[in-house]
Amino acid sequence: MWRTMRMKLGGTGGGRRWLSSRSDWGKGKRIAAVWGNGDYGRLGLGSLGSQWKPAPLRSSAFGDQSLEAIACGGAHTLFLTGSGRLYATGLNDFGQLGVGDSHDLTYTCKPLEVTGIGKEIVRISAGYYHSCAITEDGELYMWGKNSNGQLGLGKRAAGLISVPTKVECLAGITINTAALGSEHSVAVTDGGESLSWGGGSGRLGHGHESGILGILRSTSEYTPRLIKKLEGIKVKEVAAGLLQSACIDDNGSVFMFGERTVDKLWSGKGNNATTPSMISKLPCSKEVACGGYHTCVLTSGGELYSWGSNENGCLGIGTTDVFHHPERVQGPFLKSPVVKVSCGWKHTAAISEGNIYTWGWGGSLGTFSEDGHSSGGQLGHGTDVDCIKPAMVTFGQNVKALQISCGFNHTGAILEYT
User: Fold this and answer.
1) Among 140, 326, 335, 379, which residue's CB has the most CB atoms within a 10 Å radius?
2) Which residues form the signal peptide (predicted)?
């Protein structure tokens, strides 16, 4: 899901004081907490400083509205309020914030409201350089980088779209959910049909197709295309990563497709890498998350499984060995079920019994390490040290986690005061 980019390290903030006693953050109030690399203002805290521990975003940043969802992308973050309004912060070099050209800004350190959709928004998703929103009536709006058709707006659309734009070719089709990867997008209709578009035929699930004289056709799709191998299968959930995509049907079966997934993970099925293949060694599943080179699945019984590349311990299984087949993540999850999971480039986060656990790349000795500096604390443990097993993230008192989202090297959560 993630592409390497150069970071300008902005500090090592240790986290903000939790104000759980404030009346405007009373019982039932939902807020956002963020941590990790703060470059380009992706944390929305008003500075470029990194946060080694969770920092709460003040409700005043969103007009004192309660928050419903958060989506962390490459270097930007989206926030959805309980009233269906959308805010964005962070890098805007490809218009991924959706705030238009009039602002003439390459990044912002504070959340800005995204306007122009005109309807209540119910779902959001952030890819590396692009973003999307789904309205209450199932319309899909997209914006950001469009170099490989990842916005689904057609081949004649510009390579950069800086305002939310309706995907007109889906008129009359109700979209339930969508997931954005590095340069591709996947969505599910209310009838369970799965669609994909953008760059990379493998991660789109359409297979390699030859054109005239057997020459390989373009691997990009510029408008949403039905994934034919999943026809007749009612899909409920989708996920998109760097090179892979995944989905879960209404029976709890998991399907994966991507250039580097199938031939590595299921020996002998390399030819099926570009079309969906079912993973048979998993219990009934309800949620899937794709990261840089790893994947996590949450079963209906609250068990968490992971597999793929295990750089920096992002699988959470106590080693850094690569696992080609699903391996159960144990530790605290043997006693308490997992309810949410999210994958970043090389780190992972999960929610169990209202608590957040993170593991994987902490920031030190990472891709962007230079002269001993760190990329930034995305695990939220107060250090930048890698963690190969799930470790709890400490928050203020009287809060429980409802949602978690991992970006490239930052993390965000929706918390509720109890």
Assistant:
1) 379
2) none
CA 246 to chain centre: 13
**Which of 114, 120, 122, 224 has the alpha carbon at shortest distance from 162?**
114
Q: Residue 5 in 3-state DSSP? A: coil
Answer positive or negative: Cα dihedral of 107, 113, 114, 116.
negative
Reported confidence tier of residue 17, pLDDT bands at 50, 70, 90: low
Provide the pLDDT confidence category of residue 23 given band limits of 50, 70 and 90. Answer: very low
- Bridge partner residues of 349 (DSSP): 342, 358
The domain defined by 29-205+216-276+391-417 folds into Methylamine Dehydrogenase; Chain H (2.130.10)
> Rounded to whole angstroms, how far apart are CA atoms 341 and 318?
18
Report how far residue 64's alpha carbon sits from residue 58's, in angstroms, rounded to the nearest whole number.
8
- Which amino acid is located at 83 in the chain? S
Torsion angle (degrees, nearest 10) of CA 382, 383, 385, 391: -10
> Distance between alpha carbon 192 and the CA centroid of its chain, in Å?
21
- Which of 134, 64, 80, 68 lies closest to 414, judged by CA? 68
> Which residue type is seen at 46?
G
Q: Which residues contact 265 (CB under 8 A, 6 or more apart)?
A: 256, 307, 308, 324, 325
Q: What is the pTM of this model?
A: 0.91
CA distance 77 to 86: 11
Say whether 156 sits in a helix, a strand or coil.
coil
Which structure tokens are listed for 65? 């509205």
